[in-house]
């Protein structure tokens, strides 16, 4: 790990500012804003030397794009090789918000993870920026992540797992700043919203355990985890849901969204509400996890 730099809060802020303030809301109906966001993400990855594959799909007569970055010219290059690790985040928003935490923070984390790993990005890692996670596509086959997961399954590509970055920027040190979907969790987890959460389904226990072990080894940020049944509200509220649908193991990395952040889906979801130093700590832990999951020696 000594060969790698640490995540830079200034870089994270730059990306979030660009998406949330310069571009603004990135709703499915705002195709021009989504196209600008897509082009920005492509440029960031290309500046790092990544190869880009654009996966296009249609919804209500318009074309949308997933931006897939890796060391290969397209995911097809991974066929017949080792299982791949997909790390992804969505770049769209609902219409009512600039989406700093939801989900410019996830995209910033994805880009910064790639920058920090640099030439050490494992060949079996795929970085995916998804369009159309939010309503009305949310939890439907119209999600960008659904299209990618379907493509992987049809291509018989095996996965080590999928790691979903869904809102990683909002933290609080105040008592009772953290709420929960079910009452019993109050007796298990802290009511102070200063931690990052790892959330998977029951099928993904092994992946969650390995991911948490890496986060704890990194020691950069308090980390909690849960593998929850489908009826726990919020446990599958992002792109990892699409990978579940195709039988893949997946874990969401999250600040817990509306269980902590009062600005969720509101005009007040702005960069100044985020903690970029803690965001950087999450990225540093993700670097360790990526290396561990791919068994890379540095």
TrEMBL record:
<protein>
    <recommendedName>
        <fullName>Peptidase M28 domain-containing protein</fullName>
    </recommendedName>
</protein>
<dbReference type="GO" id="GO:0006508">
    <property type="term" value="P:proteolysis"/>
</dbReference>
<dbReference type="GO" id="GO:0008235">
    <property type="term" value="F:metalloexopeptidase activity"/>
</dbReference>
<dbReference type="InterPro" id="IPR045175">
    <property type="entry name" value="M28_fam"/>
</dbReference>
<dbReference type="InterPro" id="IPR007484">
    <property type="entry name" value="Peptidase_M28"/>
</dbReference>
<feature type="domain" description="Peptidase M28">
    <location>
        <begin position="77"/>
        <end position="286"/>
    </location>
</feature>
<dbReference type="Pfam" id="PF04389">
    <property type="entry name" value="Peptidase_M28"/>
</dbReference>
């Amino acid at each position: 790990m000594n060969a790698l730099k640490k995540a830079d809060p200034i870089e994270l802020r730059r990306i979030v500012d660009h998406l949330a303030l310069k571009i603004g809301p990135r709703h499915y109906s705002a195709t021009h804003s989504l196209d600008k966001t897509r082009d920005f993400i492509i440029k960031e990855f290309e500046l790092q030397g990544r190869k880009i594959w654009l996966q296009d799909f249609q919804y209500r007569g318009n074309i949308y794009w997933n931006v897939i970055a890796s060391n290969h010219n397209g995911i097809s290059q991974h066929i017949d090789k080792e299982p791949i690790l997909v790390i992804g985040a969505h770049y769209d928003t609902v219409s009512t918000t600039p989406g700093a935490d939801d989900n410019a923070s996830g995209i910033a984390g994805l880009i910064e993870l790639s920058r920090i790993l640099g030439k050490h990005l494992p060949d079996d890692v795929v970085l995916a920026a998804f369009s159309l996670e939010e309503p009305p596509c949310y939890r439907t086959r119209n999600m960008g992540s659904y299209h990618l997961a379907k493509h992987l399954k049809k291509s018989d590509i095996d996965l080590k797992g999928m790691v979903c970055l869904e809102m990683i920027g909002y933290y609080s040190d105040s008592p009772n700043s953290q709420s929960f979907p079910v009452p019993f969790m109050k007796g298990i987890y802290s009511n102070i919203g200063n931690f990052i959460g790892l959330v998977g389904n029951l099928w993904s226990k092994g992946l969650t355990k390995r991911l948490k072990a890496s986060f704890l080894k990194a020691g950069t940020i308090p980390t909690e985890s849960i593998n929850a049944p489908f009826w726990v509200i919020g446990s599958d509220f992002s792109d990892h849901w699409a990978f579940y649908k195709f039988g893949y193991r997946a874990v969401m990395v999250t600040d817990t969204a509306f269980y902590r952040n009062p600005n969720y889906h509101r005009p007040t979801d702005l960069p100044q509400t985020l903690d970029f130093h803690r965001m950087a700590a999450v990225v540093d832990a993700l670097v360790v996890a990526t290396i561990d999951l791919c068994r890379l020696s540095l």
